[in-house]
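A quick aside before the break. I want you to see a complete sequence-to-structure record at least once, exactly as it would be stored in a machine-readable document. Don't worry about memorizing anything.
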Amino acid sequence: INTWKKKYQPNSDLLNMIGLLYFKMENLKMAETSYIRAILKKPYNSIYASNLLNVFIKNQEYEKAIKYYENWIKYKRACEHLHVTVGKAYFDTKNYQKALTCYQKASIIDLYNFDYQYNYVLCLIKINKINQAYNSLIKWIDNHPMYDKAYYLNEFGVLFLKNGLFEFSQKLFFQSLEYNSNDVQCATNYLYTLKHLKLYEKAIDFSNN
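That is the input. The structure line, written in tokens, reads:
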């Protein structure tokens, strides 16, 4: 890193890259300094701001991250990465409603991003809007121009399973198997949910087919 500083004129992109390297090395103080210097050179670059917020969150300075974000969006446009990063700060502090809003904003910018939709659905589950969570993901999958719908249905099924929502996870695993009946892990997950729902005959019938 020091060689880079001596060899190259530290423009904003280089300072951001140096910050990323420091962040990976867990030298958070130097990462923060590098990101701030990058932002000073390009004050409207929200990716740099998102990286800076990651430092605050890593240090568990959640209020600092949230305040920085709220000041930013008053005057500047935020990219999807910035919304997602502060969404994590809200989520980690159990402010699920505000986290939901952030992930929703990110999803509007990048409609087909699975991670954004996943976090959006998770927030809906956390605020007990289960039907809305399920309907939202089904609509997202139906409108998604992708080929592997089975994968996404299974992933959301696992999400509902982890949150003890066996009825919904059972539906998702079943739909996933309709697209890919050879997925052994999904079939195992499906049988697991049937067991918890005490649908023993249905489980036996499925196993015999």
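Two observations worth writing down. The chain has a mean pLDDT of 93. Residues 141 and 152 are 8 Å apart (CA to CA). We'll return to this after the break.
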